[in-house]
Amino acid sequence: MTAYDVVRPLLFSLPAETAHNFGKSALGLLQSSSVSRRAVRRLYRVSDPRLTVERFGVEFPSPVGVAAGFDKNGEVTHGLADLGFGFTEAGTVTPAPQDGNPRPRLFRLPEDGGMVNRLAFNSQGAERVRDRFAARGLPDVPVGVNIGSMNDSDAAAAIEDYRTVFRTLYPYPDYFVVNVSCPNTPEEYNEQSPEHLRRVFGTLTEENDEDKPLLVKVGPDSTRAGLEELVDIVHEFDVDGVVATNTTTDHEGLTSHNRVEWGGVSGRPLRDAATRTVRTLAGLTDLPIIGVGGVDSAETAYEKIRAGASLVQLYTGFVYGGPSTAKRINTGLCDLLEADGFDSVEAAVGVDVE
Question: Which residue from 213, 264, 276, 337 has the fewest beta carbons nearer than 10 Å?
Fold first, then answer.
């Protein structure tokens, strides 16, 4: 039993968003002191060359990262790195501050090992995130920024929203992710239509003077035909990779009380659909894939790696697993690699893809 196993029932007695903010505040306090940071790194970081992955020109000390949504405004990037995560992704960041949907908007599914969220791009805005990055600097692991549009933007305005966030934050992250698959934002237009995607990628490609890696985040409910079309567009604009997947609107099979809440489902209920999407994409493209959805153990991380993911991300698994999550997964991955005779994560990527 870990200390988090003792504390978790107390945290879970609070509303989910309140507990989330409390946890981030505690992490922010830890990262504010060089003494506590050194102690956390000694306790949680796993250093093993077998875990190192290099994709789109960026070296990741571990394939296990934190997904967008946990640290929306880039407030605890250093703390997450100290906990042993190999990278972290801030966002979704919007051009101006916005509140998102009314609370409550985040719900646990304890019997299912998942969560429901309908946050809808609540953000402090790109300038606030930029100022934070400029003042604090970035950690010694890669940092991505997930960019999105304002909730009231139409298709044309959304293009300018993406451009604004991209320009404002351009000097700081190691890569950018375009979020065109959030199920919780108003459906003003089809953000995954080929026409819209071409305008998005065309606009950002024109702005990308230093060739920063640009990825796109897809949903888990896409058809194979839809993914084929997406891959064609991604190749057309030399997009550097795909994040698979966002949350799902499919609530079938959930048993927890909060299953009746509308919003995107994450965590264990998303695992199989996300892995299928990773495997499908890996069969369609050689581009790097970041696998997200139901990663909560070394085994579930390894499953996505073998299915074609070069890197994995988690959010809900971190909420349920606590501070030792990255260490537990990284240590377990080394054991799984050794058992299967692989000398690195790189060697295991996609071995289950036919």
Answer: 276
